[in-house]
Amino acid sequence: MTDCLNTDLLDDPLGDDRLNTDLLDNSISVENPVERFLRSDRMPHIWCPGCGIGTTVNSFARALIESKIDLGSLALVSGIGCTGRVAGYVKLDSFHTTHGRAIPFATGLKLANPKLNVVVYSGDGDLSAIGGNHLIHAARRNIDLKVICVNNLIYAMTGGQTAPTTPDHSTTSTNPYGVFEPSFNLPHLVEAAGAVYVARWTTFHVRQLARSISEAFKKKGFSFIEVISPCPTLYQRRNKMGDALDAMKFYKEKSKIRHGAPTSEVGMTMTGEIIVGKFVDRERPDYQTMMKAQYTESLGERFVEPTEMVCS
Ligand SMILES: Cc1ncc(C[n+]2csc(CCOP(=O)(O)OP(=O)(O)O)c2C)c(N)n1
Ligand code: SF4
Ligand SMILES: [Mg+2]
Question: Which of 63, 232, 248, 300 would you call most buried, defined as having the most Cβ atoms within 10 angstroms of its Cβ?
């Protein structure tokens, strides 16, 4: 990348039309700081122009830099969907699993190797529809997972069908006359189920999102970060909400930062306020701590802590 290219050097010193490429090769080269977290050989990616998923990946990569987390002990698990493709584009130990099963897969990883930092990165449909049961039970058990839920308010990859997160009155491929069923308020759902950290941002809030992800890395227990993200191709277009730039203007205008807001009050509507911020940050023992305490109490010295499983 040549962000700091000195264009004077591009002037042809030989007085003819050929570009002097020797001078170009010596120009200053600046690497994009997040590039080293990406599998550049997998580019171009599949995401549409203006899609918000790439923006969330940028914030995620910046959180990796900011938190100085050991990449060797990090694993990322995705389900299926446009968001699920994140697992294929990050240069980390990552797993693109089956639809709705990212959380059980991640739970297995964490139980087998408790030292791992396990991130689940998936879509609203994957996590709260087909995977909804796993979501609430992982929160109830307080499994030490960091869940990043990209909520574009629909099943995007399969054509824009209504999801449990689709606000009422919006138009989707399966509700061409408007959605009439109530939608999930995800922060409220996971808080009620037991999550210890719950935040919501939009793709307009790139710095706040990166900071929340860094913060979640420091928490032990079930952390859930929802990112409201535009799908210009399906949701925005069908709902006449304009392009990606219009989505950013909409998020800027409609978002209100309310840290500590009761999650019962942060439900989304199609055109109303989007309450963002850190809603929950609390402590309670995670699954593995509770398991150890229970087995120690019941078995005493007969309890042997499982050792880390290493694949050879
Ligand atoms: C068992 C199973 N059922 C259904 C599908 C089809 N399917 C693939 S992705 C998807 C929805 C994904 O929606 P979401 O998680 O919100 O991701 P997005 O594409 O919106 O990022 C569905 C229903 C599938 N792959 N597997
Ligand atoms: S269909 Fe929507 S969510 Fe999927 S890549 Fe395109 S804009 Fe993004
Ligand atoms: Mg979706």
Answer: 63
